[in-house]
């Protein structure tokens, strides 16, 4: 593997999003700042007989903004989100891939991660098989369910022939995408990396299974207030869907083409709890090690972190464990650093949760404002840090930490910094 050069800086130049509170980045960011929640009664299927009938769905989304109608019919919803977000990010970055030489396109990579990929293809294909027979199963079902297909189609869309990577790490997946992007830039393998994640898990099977697990909020009578991280009355997370893509490129490449960087990716770390298939290790040791190692990797101190985008799922165990981990790493500084959770407004996007948090961090750095933790009305006594309740807060933000913790004890942290020459 090529040696990494820390002097080779990785900057962010374009943002794209498809989220439950906005089908583009600026709408998402505006609503996030305003505390708008996207949890509603589920519209995509009949929830009669379900204990949980709420989710954070993407509404009024037309996949043909990102691909032709025939391809849209053949591909999965998570691919639709990734393609739309990717095209928005590329346009925002002002990159014309068509004007690049083949050698230049050899140095452009794509990293789009997911938790489940096109799981609806398995469900639908099984139904067709059982009701009509094997000859009627779509020949496109396997490509459409593949978790890597979102990244592959983005590479095909622009003729990008650098590395194409998809990693599946549950709820930590798209934080990990920034680790790969930073590595590819620092090793000199890539000049540009389309980086992100996408997920479309709001399906009867998933809602039923997670509901039976006891992981989901049952506030069916008050969906807008169902996701309430760090609140003493929280009763589980809200399942969400969406996708996001960020253009990450070397500083040299960005400046050479006259781009204006928004922020810089400066480091991160991964650890494992090795504890339980769904519950976090109760002391928060694995999460704390990820934060500590990320600080070391980024060469910053706890005093330099101006804001933490929390994993903040709104589950009884996760919120307390993350609070303990932050205290273990930050000490007394834990009570001074502001923290908030976008999941209070968009729910838990599983494999796309990390990109939603990264987009939150990048918007906060760009506009120097911290979005709130919505619905935080009565803080849990064990969650006694500054979670920026209810209302956005202007702040001086130079360096922001993003946490992502997944089922199976997968912990990922990434750190972003305001760009300066």
Task: Write the topology of this structure.
Elements: E1 10-18, H1 25-33, E2 40-41, E3 54-55, H2 69-74, H3 77-93, H4 102-105, E4 108-113, H5 119-132, H6 141-145, H7 149-158, E5 164-165, H8 173-186, E6 192-199, H9 204-213, E7 242-250, H10 251-256, E8 263-272, H11 285-298, E9 307-309, H12 316-330, E10 339-340, H13 343-346, H14 353-367, E11 369-370, E12 393-394, E13 399-406, E14 410-418
Parallel strand pairs: 4-5, 4-6, 9-10, 9-13
Antiparallel strand pairs: 1-7, 1-8, 2-3, 6-7, 8-14, 11-12, 13-14
Description of the molecule:
This protein is of the alpha/beta class and 421 residues long. It folds into 2 domains: 10-256, Peroxisomal Thiolase, Chain A, domain 1, CATH 3.40.47; 267-418, Thiolase/Chalcone synthase (Peroxisomal Thiolase, Chain A, domain 1, 3-Layer(aba) Sandwich). Helices cover 34% and strands 18% of the residues. The chain contains 14 helices and 14 strands. The protein has helices spanning 25-33, 69-74, 77-93, 102-105, 119-132, 141-145, 149-158, 173-186, 204-213, 251-256, 285-298, 316-330, 343-346, 353-367, and strands at residues 10-18, 40-41, 54-55, 108-113, 164-165, 192-199, 242-250, 263-272, 307-309, 339-340, 369-370, 393-394, 399-406, 410-418. The protein has a 10-stranded mixed beta sheet with strand order 5-4-6-7-1-8-14-13-9-10, with helices on both faces. Strands 2-3 form a two-stranded antiparallel ribbon. The radius of gyration is 20 Å and the shape is globular. The model has no long low-confidence stretch (mean pLDDT 95).
